[in-house]
Here is the input.
Amino acid sequence: MLSNSYIFHDTGARLSAKSEDRKGFTTGQVAEICHVTIPTVIKWIDSGRLKGFKLPGSKSRRVSRDDLIEFMRENSIPLERLDRAKRRILIVDDDPRILDLLKAIFEEEGDWEIRLVSRGFDAGLAKEFRPDCILLDIMLPDIDGRKVCSYLRQSPELATVKIIAISGYISQGGFQDLLAQGFDDFLVKPFSNEELVGKVRKLVERE
Here is the structure.
């Protein structure tokens, strides 16, 4: 179990961790696993065929792993599809402590496949890994994160990947520049676990 807080000592960024049960699968993930549309999954839940729940403060429906397995067995849906349900995230930062902390946060979520790289040039791993989201520190020692983003956007296979810039300070004008350079959103240190995970999920799990 993770401790109650995380502190990035050299940046002063603090991440508060909240102990929660596993979030379950989104309707988008269930649709992908079962090879149906999201509206179909919602109908299953609303009709009671598939047990679902809502997270506190959220309107999005979720399905626990156990309930999904039971439903798949009842409807002869191959269970091996569950192995392909995890989202993929690539985290790029030169500070190994920050990499470890961010990795721990997404491991706590339970439904992410995670890759870590410490150099901007190593972000080319994304072409092989095919992440759903990239967390990219824009202040890297070997190359500016903006150039890394521009490089990744030149690859057709990465056209839909969501790229989030991380920085100690980004002005409103700077944010507009980041959007123009291919970023989808940004996070300014310090930020909470909830802000980090919420922003990532909002981008990759639009329902």
About this structure: Strands lie at 5-8, 13-16, 25-26, 53-54, 61-63, 87-92, 112-117, 133-137, 162-167, 185-188. Confidence is low (pLDDT under 50) at residues 1-22. The first strand starts at residue 5 and ends at 8. The longest helix spans residues 96-109.
